[in-house]
Amino acid sequence: MSKKTKSLQPSTAMQTAAISAPSDSLPWGGLLALSMAAFITILTEALPAGLLPLISSGLDVSQAAAGQLVTIYAVGSLVAAIPLTTLTQGMRRRPLLLAAIAGFLVANTITAISPDYALTMVARFVAGISAGLLWALAAGYAARMAPDHLKGRAIAIAMVGTPLALSFGVPAGTFLGALVGWRACFGLMSGMTVILIVWVLAAVPDFAGESGNARRSVKGVVTLPGIRSVLLVVLTFVVAHNILYTYIAPFLARAEMEGQVDTVLLTFGMASLIGIWIIGVLIDRWLRVLTLASTALFGLASIAFWIGDEAPIAIYGATALWGLAFGGCATLFQTASAKTAGPAADLAQSMLVTAWNSAIAGGGMIGGVLLDQFGAGAFAPTMIALLIICFAVTLNARRHGFTA
Predict the structure, then answer these.
(1) Residue 214: predicted pLDDT
(2) DSSP conformation letters of 330-386
(3) 164: phi > 0 → left, psi -120 to 50 → alpha, else beta; which?
(4) Start and end residues for every CATH 1.20.1250.20 domain found in the chain
(5) Structural class in CATH, domain 28-212
(6) Quick count: other Cβ atoms within 10 Å of Cβ 66?
(7) Helices (H), 224-260
(8) Helix and strand tally (H, E) in the chain?
(9) pLDDT tens figures, 292-334
(10) Beta-carbon neighbour count of residue 208 at 10 Å?
């Protein structure tokens, strides 16, 4: 071997080691842009609930009709997520992400200026379609931006906008709406969306879509080992959550806490932030354990709601446990789905979005039937039954879905 060849060996070895060694850095600028996208998505969805009287007056409709602005948004997400994600598998990812974000810009701008209820409903449907596409993209996008051993943490960072929107965005928007009007709130969200578009162009990398022979069908993805387990866990966990979340006011009325709904939900939101922080730190090593722990913690909270449903201190304690369990659940489920589906992550995420929105609707319907037929006292035992199923499915998904 020549001296020249020997002199090159250490340099080549170091270069190879540098390339193969996993990076411990995360692309914070891009991940926080995705987090802001999640924030705008949730705020667009939930803000009308805090502004119902103002929207009702502004559009000259009943509050029940104004409430359908939330319903039509969920319907848009439900019907669009899987078809749109299937049709756009071959598109480059950043233009697709920007198209989803632009949908919010158009929808919120129309909502801010529309004098007509029907036009506003169409705008909300468009916003829901954009949300279905964005949620299908977000987790897979975050995972592709991060090194393998930090993919779960990357998804957690991208999802932190969700609890922030629920904990602070909606209350702040409700307060601001009372000061400057509900239309100004939607206009402000349009301004935030313009900033987000610039941010995505500057900080979020582009990725290629799937090549023709790599694309999968819906049937091909849903039959992957573990995917159905993940979807069933999402359905049972989120239905249990929405039975209580949707009808929290009548539930609190049993303890004469009608005037404390905002305080209880603030407690839930603050605990959710702690939950997502814990999940973000630990998820890359303990996905299965954390999912089981979150389900068990939610079950414990449900038992506390059942036993102490007329004691304010018990309700606040149970609410804190509930928020802690729920805060990181979206990150857990999306990470499980992305890891299980592999290259088909985006299509699997669209199924998760559909399951999640179906669970929201299902929780509302089941909770309504329980409330009418048995009263709010029936919520907790029903939630416990659903969470037992959720825990059992997770426990059984050791090899695929929620792997050890």
Answers:
(1) 59
(2) HHHHHHHHHHHHGGGHHHHHHHHHHHHHHHHHHHHHHHHHHHHHT-GGGHHHHHHHH
(3) alpha
(4) 28-212, 218-396
(5) mainly alpha
(6) 23
(7) 227-246, 248-253
(8) 18, 0
(9) 999 999 999 999 999 987 889 999 999 999 999 998 898 899 8
(10) 9
Nearest Cα residue to 336 out of 321, 354, 358, 351: 351
Nearest to 152 by CA among 274, 277, 29, 283: 283
- Please report, as a single letter, which amino acid is at residue 204: V
Read off the tokens for 109: 């701008």
Contacts of 340 (CB under 8 A, 6+ apart): 224, 225, 226, 227, 230, 348, 400, 401
CA-CA distance, 60 to 253, in Å (whole number)? 30
CA distance 15 to 275: 40
C-beta of residue 333 within 8 angstroms of C-beta of residue 235: no
CATH (residue range 218-396):
1.20.1250.20
User: Rounded mean pLDDT of 193-215?
Assistant: 86
Give the pLDDT confidence score for residue 213 in this predicted structure: 60
Average pLDDT rounded to a whole number, residues 378-390: 96
Give the residue ranges of DSSP H helices in 51-150: 52-59, 63-87, 93-113, 117-145
CA 171 to chain centre: 18
Q: Can you give the pLDDT at residue 212?
A: 60
Backbone angles phi, psi at 92, to 5 degrees: -65, 145
pLDDT over 70 (residue 99): yes
Highest mean pLDDT of the ranges 191-200, 242-251, 257-266: 191-200
**pLDDT reading at 12 higher than 60:** no
Q: Mind listing the pLDDT tens digit for each residue in 66-98?
A: 878 888 888 898 888 889 888 888 889 999 999
